[in-house]
Amino acid sequence: RKAGYESCMYKGFVESTERLLISENGLSRMEVDMLRKCFDDEIKKAGIESDQFVALYHSR
């Protein structure tokens, strides 16, 4: 089972997205943390584990 790999991918995806938001869009760390929290909440509400999210994200 490659869940470990996928959650690493998810973490990497989130971190690179955060870096982009900060460097490209000039958002502050606090704004990004708020976005991240909303994002994580949405995923939880949908009942999707983060490794499933990655699989979903990559299958689009």
Written overview of the protein:
There is one protein chain. With 60 residues, this protein is an all-alpha fold. It has one domain. The chain is 83% helix and 0% strand. It contains three helices and no strands. α1 (3-25) crosses α3 (50-59). The longest helix has 23 residues, at 3-25. The model has no long low-confidence stretch (mean pLDDT 73).
Sequence of secondary-structure elements: HHH
The gross shape turns out to be: globular
The biggest beta sheet is recorded as: none
- Class inferred from helices and paired strands: mainly alpha
Percent helix: over 70%
- Uncertain residue segments: none
Query: C-alpha Rg, in Å?
Result: 12 Å
Q: How many helix segments?
A: 3
Q: Termini separation (Å)? A: 21 Å
Total number of strands: 0
Strand content: under 5%
Mean pLDDT: 73
Give descriptors for this structure:
60 residues, mainly alpha, 3 helices, 83% helix
Describe the protein's topology.
Layout: H1 3-25, H2 29-45, H3 50-59
Kindly summarize this structure in a few lines:
By secondary structure, the protein is mainly α. The protein is built from 3 helices and no strands.
